[in-house]
Queue: 2 jobs
Job 1
Amino acid sequence: MTPAVGYRFWRVDPDDAWTRGRLQSPVAETLWPPLETLDAECQTRPGLRLARAGLHRADELRVSPEPGCSCGIYAYHDIAPMTRALREEPYMFGGAVLCWGRIVIHPEGLRAEHARPLALCRPESPGVLQRTAPLLEHVTREYAIPLLELKDLVTYASEFGASYKPDPSEPQPRTIDRVRNAVSFRQLVRRLGKAIGG
Ligand SMILES: [Zn+2]
């Protein structure tokens, strides 16, 4: 299976001694390890893990993502929802990710078992760019990924994998499943506070 390309955003806190300029999932607070693969876990917080256990099939408790659960590493199929979110948050940066392993596909995005960042994109605002240039240089060096103009991000990322955005002309799952999937992805994103978790 060809790896999937997706788009998402991270928080990078330059002043946090613990995260030290690492890419961090905005809500799940997962730190993405430089030069390594990030692996999905159902939940790192014990209370939530217990609450979500029922959403996994009994024989697959350890596998993430599970279709009925909200776990996994999130990415959008397109850059537009990513850039919309970036305008609202300081120290939030967008980029492309490569996803593989088990993948749950939703209309707007996907949840994956494994992922690594492919590239970050330069902030569109000149003021933000100027303010964050040293930080972004540091981060992209740590992760050994390029810092690209937004317009070049899709072309670059496409070299590594394929878009898994559902094709509307292809036969769709039953309507009820499709509606449920669309609703659930939006609800998940909203529940994560306009941000993408895991
Ligand atoms: Zn789960």
Job 2
Amino acid sequence: MPGSTPIHLQRCFHHSLREAVARCPACGRFYCRECINEHQGRLLCASCLRRLTQAVKPKRRWPALWGRVAAALIGLAVTWLFFYGLGALLIIIPSDSHEMQEHLFNTLER
Ligand SMILES: [Zn+2]
Ligand SMILES: [Zn+2]
């Protein structure tokens, strides 16, 4: 019977070479110390913990979404400022390149 096997003879579900230290109560698989996590006083494997935390998550979805929107807006503002600054610099500095353009036009017209 596989269920009667002592825990020290069990191997981790993810690491076949490692000894299991605990059994996940949610899925019943054995895991090594690295694969098992403590969550609110209970021992859970990484995948069960992820499933559990994802099931709780939807409540916090809105703030996360707004955070992402804000980040996108900030990114846009920074990009806009960058190009605005670049445009302003192009207007201020190259007065001689503008003259060069006029010179070029004049030479082409001739
Ligand atoms: Zn599990
Ligand atoms: Zn493991």
